[in-house]
User: Fold this.
Amino acid sequence: MGTIRKLLAALSVCGISIHAGGALAQECTERLLASGYNSDNVHIYDLCDGGSFAGVLDSGGRLDGVQAVRQSGDFLYVASEENDRIVRYSADTLEFVDIWVQTPSIGVSKPTALAVGPDGDIYVGGFQSTVVVRLNPQTGAEVQRYNLGSAINGIDAGMAFGDDGRLLVPGFESDNIIAIDVDSGSTSQFIAAGSGGLDAPRVIVNDTARSRLLVTSWRSSRVLAFAYDGGFTEELVVAGRPTGLVVDGQDTLLVTSDQVARVIRYDSNGGIVETVVESGAGGLDGATFLTVIGTRAAATPVVTEPDQAWLIGSGEFVGNTLVAEMVITDGARFGAAFDPAAVRRQVWGQVEFALIDCDNATFSWSSPDTDYAQGEYAVLRLGPNEARESCLQQGLSPAAASGVWFGGPPRDGEGMMVDVLLGDIGVLTWYTYRPGTTP
Assistant:
């Protein structure tokens, strides 16, 4: 039973929900993390309890001048500017994990900015640097480097990805925002200095629900809204020296300031709703960045028609690529009503799972059903296991595929499990959704 519990816990981490007949309300776990540059810590507030102070992230003096905090998978990544490091903590328990990177080793001075890419890679920028470095989230190894040169000055905390997949980088001293094509490495000016009153931009937020970009403009004491093409649309919030900004689980905006160190909730049109964190609560000083972790569940169960699709198949590895013929199942019911004779198995198509290294693979599919058709995306291992450790020690082989995999933030809510049997036979179960439905 312990193994099953661990497996279900892992599935919940990568966003796969397992339920019968509907989505069940869960305990509210939504927490606000506020970076304190002067207080040298990340301050934790319980949003399910009106913003009450719940403690600090670090108790070991590892942080100095805290800037961006980003969650990726099991970890929180924290930019500690004044001692040039990125520190990791458990996103679940909030316990210290490791000093992930000393940023001078990657050519970044005074790290302020972090972003998690659609590929799951971590992007790091520094206030005294004109480069952004893309790192492997497991190893911290450099994947790619982007040189911005004189196009920007003073990379600040709130880099973000736009709707077109480009990385948007705020320049505090240059008063502009630069766009990076993370595949080609090309850069361009996205928002010019002074556009819409932009002056010392600090944090960019992609407000996907309203198809707009929000930017805290520090020197002009504004939160500004821009269209996805970079065009200015409106002045949304007037707030003294705003720094951190996040869209929270109540579909509202939370804004803080390094001068006042309190958190105000605004509605989506910029109207003040309430003060969530009073000035200096919990010792917060010099607030620079906000992020929200955890979930706020629906107050009542939401019953939905089944829209999940579970596909299972097996096949042989060709080199380090599993080719599996898949079937899709339905027809049966949960619990005492389960009848094996009611299970319908329909030939679905074929998938290929191609290992790249011990932590990364490519997943592709092809189905004669035109609603599913064909496609491909990159997947990464959900967490370390014995197969990974063996791979790191003995080299890549089919056995390294065993484990739980998912496609990073762009495919959060979907994933697959692979088991490798003797004779390099692979069994793959894909937890996905039926066409036309939303996870």
